Amino acid sequence: MRKAEASSFWLSHCAALRLCVSGSAPLPAQVLEEFDARFGQRILERYGMTETLMTLGNPYGGERRAGTVGKPFPGVAARIATEAGDDAPVGEPGELLVKSPTLFAGYWNQADATAASYRDGWFATGDIAERSADGYYTLCGRKSDLIISGGFNIYPREIEEVLADHPAVAEVAVASMADRLKGEVPVAFVVARTAPPVGAAELVDYCATRLASFKVPREVRFLEALPRNAMGKIEKKRLV
Fold this sequence. Notes:
Helix content: 10-25%
Radius of gyration: 19 Å
Order of helices and strands: HEHEEEEEHEEEEEHEEHE
Number of domains: 2
Distance between the termini: 39 Å
Low-confidence stretches: none
Shape: globular
């Protein structure tokens, strides 16, 4: 099937779809917008975990806001907590905590792990998120992925969103690399759309005009593909 025929095929068939849903990992905002522009379908992004099932989601009949996982479902309570356990201010990142009738009973034969996953009755998801003034939640990344560079907190997803907007970048993941002076620094791993790939210096400069200086990747490394697990999630621990 030639490219033009393939495009026509997908356009005609996507027009008949009732609903397109995304989950398992944060959906880049530009992917949602590009998919909407090409196929006339605005993906509905939701959030859940094995331990919680689905707990948050963009509305079926309301605004499906790019870059967010929506609002808590009916019967679900969610909050963003600081390290001290207080509610984080609106727009400030913290750990996403939830209460839900769908929460699991506990980890099999792991009472200590079960107890450690709760904070004052709230299940700690391990995801860093922030909440908008009107209640939409945005994921910033896994708590374990947080990069602390020279005392500054860096959330990889913010850098990934910037690089994903570059026309020569097909996929990107940001992970930490040890640094003698700053402790750790961000490194970007890129799958390029073009061949030969765009230069690393160009992508660093691209970030420098859009991010605070401490968030700019120290290095950009090119890969043919990003490592993924059986669920299709990127395995960042295998990158560095």
